[in-house]
Sequence to fold (636 residues):
Amino acid sequence: MRAMLIVLGKECIESLRDRRVLLNVLVLGPLLTPMLLLLLMHLIVGREIEKAERPLPVIVVGAQNAPNLVETLRQSGMDPRPAIDDPEAAVRAQRADLVLRIPQRFGEDWRAGRPAQVELIFDSSRQELRGEVQRLQSMIEAYAARTGSLRLLARGLAPSLVNPIVVADRDQATPQARGALLLNMLPYFLILTALIGGMWLAIDATAGERERQSLEPLLVNPVERASVLMGKWLATALFSMASLLLGLFAFLAVGRLLPSDDPGLGLSIGPRFVLVALPVMVPLVLLITMAQVWVASFAKSFREAQTYLGLAQLVPLIPSILLMAVPLRPQLWMSAIPLFSQQITILHLLRGEVVSPLAIAIGAAVSLVAAAGIFWLTLRLYRSERVAISS
Amino acid sequence: MIEVEDLWKRFGTKQAVAGVSFAAQDGQITGLLGPNGAGKTTTLRMLYTLMQPDRGSVRVDGIDAAARPMDVRRRLGALPDARGLYKRLSVRENVEYFARLHGMDRAQATARCTALLQELQMMELADRRTEGFSQGERVKTAIARALVHDPRNVVLDEPANGLDVMATRSLRETLRKLRAQGRCVLMSTHIMQEVVALCDRIVIIAHGRVVADGTPDALREQAQQSNLEEAFMRIIGAAELEGGT
Fold:
């Protein structure tokens, strides 16, 4: 215990004098991620708003067949573009995004009171156009409904007769939830902060110490290797936590900067978020720093360890991508998977939802057990004869 | 006092140490002499408990290294082949770190470190960070670190490696001082002049075996040479013929 504290103290002092460590712990980890996030969110939010208000360019074929319709659509925001030949081929070749074709008999049907057909030509596999197609469809439907009502009124009938059922949308996604869809990546950023915060120290204290040939003299001291390893691990965890803490405060600051009237971005980045996120993250930080120390202990040189840990930074991306690609309904057993568990909890927190203390406890317990397991593995490595031998 | 009895160690297919026995007495400098790859470093590593022998025993002041490694480490100051320092720490911090790992509290460590650095005439280096140190300064610091717990026995692996003339002289002075204090000093080297200048007793190792053991005079006699270097060559040469291919 005493030896562990001495090792811990020395690793901390040495790291505090290392400009690379400080840069990572104080600047890169905590500041870069919220900044990146802020940028990302403003880009996305900005684009959504722009999309909703921008004139909608639509190629109109046969505009002369329905001048009133085209004029009404233009007033609702459509930007009619000159007709082209063979619109189907153009859309297929992605030379055109969206084409509205009005057949010649439109006027005739319209005047006769028959359903007049217009054709929308688009490619539904192009996700980015879905919003535009919907916008145009709803413009046309609005015009059709208005005209239909007027026709009924002209014949002395109440327009409500043709609407036996009215569907009212009551979207239960809270504004926070809609905003968090963009922010499935945020837990990853937080974990990345912790990873960056611990990485240099983990390497420096293991592969670095070996490369600089100071591990052999160190291990000749009358100290249990478990204490040495524990000291190095906790020093790494301490720096990782410092980075994470700074990162959380930076988030808090960014949360205040966010315009609160942005559509769907009423995220709960407040003191509650920090207060709950911190205890959620502590066991995970212990686990990932232990894993970092383990991985770095295998490497023979600083550079080798850097390569391994650089790749390891991508591991926490897997749950994030999963959560984004497959909207899983969170279930209790998922809390038993480290990383996944914490990412889900952080997401819930962001959405301002209730988080289950049981899920948090399970996540913490599993993470701690996993950390202890990796500690044992690393200790075995440290007890082997080859670990100290640098050449 | 260090007693080594019938030490064996194998790495894969290479039998690094094959039955080494010798004793190093208090108040003497014992030299472990041998060509590169003879098994000196491995022998020393087993001695300061970094490695476990496949067979045989090491006793330091009568304490068995396999049974009580921690007690052996407390009685032993080791300058391993690897002598890296923490370059972002000063000499004093480097030395005090090891003092504290040896169980001293902060005040004791500071006091001991000051006394030691004064004794080794290193006070002007004390508060400098070790980054950019010369080889000589580095070895001095590593020796100070090895002596911080005032061990009765001192083991040094090729201490003169890479040192210039001045640094070598100062190293010899230090080792003689340790001998005068009645400590048991055991050093390995492949350099003849080192043993001639310093050692009271020489143990020659080749192919993981002790091929000669005695005072410089006895060795000269054994090889029937007046020159120790010639004696060394003859003894090693004989061992090559016997133990070699």
